[in-house]
């Protein structure tokens, strides 16, 4: 079980980086930090609707998987599974 816990921990780290990158790829809605760092300059060059939908879909899938793995690790810790 210790190997399974280690694999889940590694997956959480990888998914954390991936989720961060996916969130940063989203188009800014305006008026926030994205405009302060140049997001407002690219309003006319926005992505297509299909690409934005796919980006949203992947972000939600990765986020749900990330939360499920965090809960699994918490249960491993609570029941002292995997050392």
Structure in words:
α1 (2-25) packs antiparallel against α3. The chain has 83 residues and is mainly α. The chain has three helices and no strands. The model has no long low-confidence stretch (mean pLDDT 85). It is elongated, with a radius of gyration of 17 Å. The longest helix has 30 residues, at 49-78. It has one domain. It has helices at 2-25, 33-36, 49-78. This is Protein-export membrane protein SecG. Involved in protein export. Participates in an early event of protein translocation. Belongs to the SecG family.
Key structural traits:
elongated; SecG; single chain; protein transport; protein-transporting ATPase activity; 83 residues; 3 helices; mainly alpha; transport; membrane
């Amino acid at each position: 079980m210790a190997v399974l816990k280690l694999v889940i921990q590694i997956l959480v780290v990888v998914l954390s980086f991936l989720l961060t990158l996916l969130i940063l790829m989203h188009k800014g809605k305006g008026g926030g930090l994205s405009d302060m760092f140049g997001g407002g300059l690219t309003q006319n060059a926005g992505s297509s609707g299909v690409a934005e939908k796919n980006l949203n879909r992947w972000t939600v899938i990765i986020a749900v998987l990330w939360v499920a793995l965090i809960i699994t690790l918490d249960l491993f810790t609570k029941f002292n599974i995997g050392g």
